[in-house]
UniProtKB/TrEMBL annotation:
Residues binding heme, per UniProt: 416
Organism name: Zasmidium cellare ATCC 36951
Protein name, per record: Cytochrome P450
Keywords: Heme, Iron, Metal-binding, Monooxygenase, Oxidoreductase
InterPro entries according to UniProt: Cyt_P450, Cyt_P450_CS, Cyt_P450_E_grp-I, Cyt_P450_sf
Recorded family membership: Belongs to the cytochrome P450 family.
Keyword flag Acyltransferase: no
Key word Amino-acid biosynthesis present: no
């Protein structure tokens, strides 16, 4: 780091650890410009060698930036949410896509959107959505897989799951389904927005090459405004309020409601579908875990009437093991692998690190998941059993970890309000998929990694060859 460019972050008045192999003047700018999956792998290796110590990631083009790895420090960040704000660095890059939506909002605007989301995603509503809205959408997905199996066609399972969640969340939240053009536009805008965090010259670059982003933003904004106008003109059903109804009642204008609608759509669609994609991928590489999962699901499975060519299995209860499988896949493949906040004033972290006002405080959930200091020597292994505890009678209990150790749903007062729905829908869809289908990976050798986006889509999708699972008992 060039000390003339900005005041250094200090630890008890002594410059604390910098990341190794930092170049003079430009610091880590070159690292930031490489593909994100390479940056994440580098941070994981760095954390492995440095333990849970806080260290600096210097670059002359961004404010002072530190990476925290200690769960105690992250717990402090979650708890002191007013001290660790989203900040201008974050909001300026996100504003074009999300405006004043909940990801970018603060103060009363954030509180109003959060209250609307909490009310909408109540336990009763999540149960109703899962039992009424999801089954017919799953039926259509099974039909698509059945056709592919008959003609021996490979399919992109990630694309199918994204389509499923687009329809599911669009129907339950807005009573409308986004079209393919709208979905593609959002994906493109998300990738461009993500690039702003690692390209220090993003404004200059977009001035000359940003036309695709502007076209994508126009489509996204148009969709947001259309769903708001439709909701405002719609006759209300007594006793039922959609998410848009709640937002319209709480927010000051339709522009803000449109921003909120776009933000909730992203959170509801992308993260859950991507988490399910990564879970199927991990199961495909871990036949022993898949076998254990099937054994745990089978006693709870029931056969339902179906329009497909053979009966389908579903589950009446979610056994603990599938929740452990889903949690473990999310641990290794977090939907938001790198996150950040900005200090509102000078402060001291629990490990003694003193941060000046305006310091970017980042944490990499992806790297923390691979830390032996947090998860043990098998931290890099896909092992759902780490989430379970058995008593003397062999009965297992799901044992959650703290948000500071497992920050995939954030933490503190800003914990993800869609956590319960993501887990419920994710486990339900995954259970149906593995009970009814075998998925052969088309490319078994190549290690999959996350693509360029604000979330963690699987780069290149997940190409599989589906086959109906054959059961030998009378339930099948």
């Amino acid at each position: 780091m060039c000390p003339l460019l900005y005041e250094s972050v200090v630890l008890d008045a002594v410059l604390y650890m910098k990341a190794p192999k930092s170049l003079p003047i430009i610091g880590y700018t070159a690292r930031l410009l490489q593909p994100r999956y390479k940056l994440l792998d580098y941070l994981a290796r760095l954390q492995s060698s440095r333990g849970v110590k806080t260290f600096e990631i210097p670059s002359p083009f961004v404010p002072p930036t530190v990476l925290i790895n200690d769960p105690a420090c992250l717990e402090y960040v979650f708890r002191e949410h007013e001290l660790f704000a989203k900040g201008s660095f974050f909001r300026s890059r996100m504003h074009d896509l999300f405006g004043d939506g909940i990801l970018n909002a603060s103060g009363p605007l954030w509180q109003s959107q959060r209250k609307a989301g909490v009310n909408f995603l109540s336990s009763a509503n999540v149960t109703r959505f899962s039992s009424e809205t999801l089954p017919p959408l799953m039926e259509a997905m099974h039909e698509r897989l059945t056709t592919a199996a008959i003609i021996h066609e490979m399919v992109d399972l990630q694309e199918l799951l994204l389509d499923l969640m687009s329809k599911f969340f669009g129907l339950v939240a807005y009573d409308t389904v986004p079209g393919a053009d709208q979905v593609r536009a959002f994906d493109e805008a998300s990738a461009w927005t993500d690039a702003r965090f690692t390209n220090p010259l993003w404004q200059f670059y977009e001035l000359f090459f940003g036309q695709p982003l502007q076209r994508a933003l126009e489509i996204v904004k148009k969709f947001g405004h259309e769903v708001v106008i439709k909701a405002a003109e719609k006759t209300r059903t007594p006793g039922h309020q959609s998410l848009l109804d709640l937002l319209l009642a709480r927010l000051p204008d339709k522009e803000t409601v449109a921003d909120a609608a776009t933000t909730f759509m992203s959170a509801g669609r992308d993260t859950t579908a991507q988490a399910m994609t990564w879970t199927v991928y991990e199961l495909s590489k871990s036949p022993k875990v898949l076998s254990t999962l099937l054994t745990s699901l089978e006693p709870h499975s029931i056969t339902r009437d179906s329009s497909t060519r053979s009966p389908l299995r579903t589950i009446g209860l979610h056994p603990r093991y599938i929740k452990a499988v889903f949690a473990e896949a999310l641990r290794l493949n977090p939907s938001v692998p790198l996150n950040m906040r900005e200090t509102a004033r000078r402060c001291r972290l629990p490990d003694g690190t003193v941060l000046q006002a305006g310091t970017i405080v980042a944490w990499a959930s992806y790297a923390m998941a691979r830390s032996s200091a947090i998860w043990g020597e098998d931290a890099q292994d896909f092992r759902p059993e780490r989430w379970l505890s058995s008593d003397e009678n062999g009965n297992s209990t799901f044992v959650p970890r703290s948000a500071s150790e497992y920050p995939v749903f954030h933490g503190g007062s800003r914990v993800c309000i869609g956590k319960s729905m993501a887990e419920a829908v994710g486990c339900q869809v995954l259970a149906e998929l593995v009970l009814n289908w075998e998925f052969e990976l088309v490319d078994k050798e190549t290690r999959k990694h996350a693509g360029e986006s604000l979330t963690a889509p699987m780069d290149g999708g997940l190409l599989v060859r589906p086959r109906r699972r054959v059961w030998t008992d009378t339930k099948a």
